[in-house]
Amino acid sequence: MSYWKHGSGWLSSADTWNTILATNTWSTSWYYQVDGAMLVDDMVYTVSARSLDYAGNYSPLYSTYTFTFDQTAPSVNVVSPADGGSYSAIKPVTINGTTGNSQASINTGVSTVAVQIINSPNGSGPTYFDGNSFVPGPRWLAAQGTAANWNYASANLTWTNTTQYRINAEATDFAGNPATINTATFSYDIEKPTSTISYPLPGYTTGFTQISGTASDQRYGVRAAGYYAGLSATR
Prior knowledge:
With about 240 residues, the chain is mainly β. The chain contains no helices and 18 strands.
């Protein structure tokens, strides 16, 4: 354990005190100007104060206060939905994630996590879920679960077909340091794809080397070619 002495730095003697300047002392109050060199990130400090009267008597009881100096922001991550993913009624959307904190001292760690759910984030008029419906924003909602493994769900939260959404997550530690916002953008699609056989033609054939056709699917925004095709044959 070491003790701060103004002008000297950290000393080993427990009987190390700093005299408050007369200009910083009044009849019932005082303050000490903290030297920035004494503060180190992720460090616990204890401040003790004693008073001296004009007769030379020191106060027998010390006022003591312990605090942690923390300058490092936590981290936050959206695990689900996946950024760039597509979801539907058979592949439902779940919102959850994690946070991290590199500090080891007491009184450090993630204090709060909040989420933002945006409808059409790249459109001309994005809207934000407020717990009941999508409204003009921005709006943030308190995450559920634990700070380390958070989630969000609401019976009022519904998704619209062929619509893009964005989930933003932010976290704040006990010292008020904000994490960098983490984002996941996804699309919601409940329209089934279609497929058509164009060759061979109906009826009979004397031989062919391939079966061909077309397929399409209404993904986010525009109709695009489907990604998968299946074939069933009987004889």
